[in-house]
Amino acid sequence: MKRHLLSAADLTRTDAELVLQTAEELRSLADRPIKKLPALRGRTVVNLFFEDSTRTRISFEAAAKRLSADVINFAAKGSSLSKGESLKDTALTLEAMGADAVVVRHHASGAPHRLAHSGWVRSNVINAGDGTHEHPTQALLDAFTMWRHLAPRNSGSLDGCRVAIVGDVLHSRVARSNALLLHTLGAHVTLVAPPTLFPVGIDGWPVETSYDLDAVLPKTDVVMMLRVQRERMSASFFPTAREYSRRYGLDGRRMAGLQDHTIVMHPGPMVRGMEITADVADSDRSVIVEQVTNGVAVRMAVLYLLLGGNEPAGTTNEGDDA
User: Which of 189, 191, 252, 283 is the most buried (most CB within 10 A)?
Assistant: First the structure.
């Protein structure tokens, strides 16, 4: 793997499969009484979050602690960042603290790239979401979830699997990262949204596009619903919430038309009743809660491979005290 994880495009197929295999080894920790390994003992991981995020920050924190790393949580609110401190000065502070890895979430697209390539820090940089650009570890945990469910019936891979990603593609860093990573892993991705919620340049993405959800659903192996990110919208992108839900929401009627093996996913947080109804979110087809569990394992794998080595985690001496 490369030194930093900034984009899903940074990962070759070999890299991505190594992360998935390592995550599978590490996921077994969730079922153990003691959920720790000594793999990163003595290393320091800093969670540098310029945007609020409970799910992603806690997932990275749990991942680092289960590998026995020291964790520093650095939130913009209430810190020097809220007083106008620059990204450079913050980076220099982290460097002085001896950070080995910096997990960055920022409202500006490209901020993690700036941090990684500025020369300000020697740390490994992991993009935990930058603006509407990318969220590579979310794509990895999504791919890992799909791989666990679909690969056993598909010769051990995601080759040829059909994935529909539905909703606010325009503002979704998850959609972009998934499109890139799933293409690398051999899956076929169709993005479904109203015309107003497709970004400029979508023709250059390795995907198909559709405005008709009902035409796409019967052929899919995975349906991933996206949240409508109203906080990023400065204009009206669809007539009403009710109209959006009618045309692009996943409800019981639409779920009944899915193939028997098709799974339902959502990166969270969900707006129940908008893009997905409660009965679908809580159904046997839904793997949304499993995605959260898988997120910790995948982020453990990323931290381990960036900081610990490029061999599967099973080679670590798990008999050491943690």
Answer: 191
